[in-house]
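Good morning C.,

I know you're traveling, so I'll keep this short. The sequence:
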Amino acid sequence: MGTSVIISAVAGERDAEQILKLQYLCYQSEAELYDDYTIEPLTQTLVDLTAELGRGYALVARLGDEVVGSVRAVVDEGGTARIAKLIVHPRMRRHGLGGRLLAAIEGHLTAELAAKRFRLFTGHRSETNLRLYRSRGYATVSKEQAGPRLTVVTLEKEAEAGAFAASA
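The tokens, ready to paste straight into the viewer:
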């Protein structure tokens, strides 16, 4: 590829539209895995997504002008950062972009928002997600039956002392 992928903060409404389209594309495989096409990432509206972006922090990965990845998070008053919706365009998977996005948001949340720990969740059949999170130091802290075909696995890790924002 002649252009490199750049990770940066969400810039505006245009990013929100691209994130929503990418989210819809990326969550098709999750919906198929659990035979449930009513999951929130597939039914979220642009208005809802824009509001969600306004309540927390989000990063996008761009290849030129195209958003090819994204991740969102919020930090609660106790210092727990809840990381959500880590997405990477299917054609960009298996090149380390998901790990780069995860490291970048962890670095920002630690340096700028004083996060003490990170928490995220995924479905029990989402082996690729589980493998990534475990390789990055996350450990399972709970499992909750969310329906007849889905068990939600919550993973957590402590923030590293002295961490700094990852350069993108």
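Safe travels,
E.
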